[in-house]
Specification:
The structure is a single chain. With about 160 residues, the chain is an alpha+beta fold. It has one domain: Aminopeptidase (3-Layer(aba) Sandwich), CATH 3.40.630. The chain is built from five helices and five strands. A five-stranded mixed β-sheet has the order 1-2-3-4-5. A hairpin with a 2-residue loop joins strand 2 and strand 3. Helix 2 crosses helix 3.
C-alpha cells in the first residue's frame, strides 16, 4: 500500500465538489472520534447536521473544501470559510477579516506524508484570495506540532470547565 502512496503520480490535491459533502462530513465525524469523543456524545443525526452546516456556509460564508486523493480514493480533506464571529463585528475589514479552517483530516494510513500541511496551505491560499487578514483553527493534539511548524501561533483563548 505505501509504495502507491509515496508515488506522487497517484496523489492529487483539488477542490472538492458538493457531491463529496458526505465524505467531508464523515471526516468531520472521524476527527471527533480520533480525538477521544465517545460515539454516544455525538448526536445520532450528525450527518444531516453537518450537511446542513456545509450548505449554509457555502451560501453565506464562501465555504470551500479541499481534498487529497490517492488513486481515486479521497483520503483527506479540510474545509474553510469566512469566520462568522462571536460578537458584533465593529472593526473594519482591513483590520479584522478572519478566515476559519476546520476539519483538517487525513485517514490514519495516509498520515505523516505532508497531506495535512498541503491541505492547510490550500485553505490558507483561498482565505488570502478572499482578503482575510488571519486564519484561525483549533488544533487537535496530533495536529498542533504541524501547525506550529507552519507558523500558526497560539492565541489568548482561555477555557474554564463548567462541569466540575
Amino acid at each position: 500500500m505505501y509504495s502507491s502512496i509515496l508515488n506522487p503520480e497517484n496523489v492529487t490535491f483539488r477542490e472538492a465538489n458538493p457531491q463529496e459533502d458526505s465524505i467531508i462530513a464523515q471526516h468531520f465525524y472521524q476527527l471527533w472520534r480520533d480525538n477521544d469523543v465517545p460515539a454516544d456524545s455525538i448526536k445520532s443525526d450528525w450527518l444531516e447536521l453537518t450537511l446542513q452546516f456545509i450548505n449554509q456556509a457555502r451560501q453565506e460564508l464562501y465555504y470551500k473544501t479541499f481534498v487529497v486523493e490517492v488513486g481515486n480514493l479521497v483520503v483527506g480533506s479540510t474545509s474553510c470559510q469566512l469566520f462568522n464571529g462571536l460578537y458584533p463585528n465593529i472593526l473594519v475589514e482591513e483590520y479584522r477579516k478572519y478566515g476559519y479552517i476546520w476539519n483538517v483530516y487525513v485517514e490514519s494510513p495516509y498520515r505523516n506524508q505532508g497531506f495535512a500541511k498541503k491541505l492547510t496551505s490550500l485553505a490558507c491560499d483561498y482565505l488570502k484570495l478572499l482578503g482575510c487578514t488571519q486564519a484561525i483553527l483549533h488544533a487537535s493534539p496530533l495536529g498542533k506540532p504541524a501547525y506550529d511548524r507552519m507558523d500558526f501561533y497560539q492565541s489568548n483563548e482561555m477555557r474554564l470547565d463548567l462541569t466540575e
